[in-house]
Amino acid sequence: MSKSGYYKWLNNEEYRLKSAQSDAQDLNLIQHIFLIKNKKVGAKSIKMILENDYGVIMNLKKIRRLMNQGGLETKVRQANPYKKMAQATQEHKTCENLVNREFDQGEPGKVLLTDITYLHYGKGHVAYLSAIKDGATNEILAHYVSTSLKMDLVYNTLETLFENGHVVSPECYFHSDQGFHYTHPEFQVQIKEYGFIQSMSRKGNCWDNAPIESFFGHLKDELEIKRCQTIKELKSLINEYILEYNSSRYQWTLKKMTPNQYRDHLLAA
Question: Do 42 and 109 fall into the same domain?
Answer without folding.
Answer: no
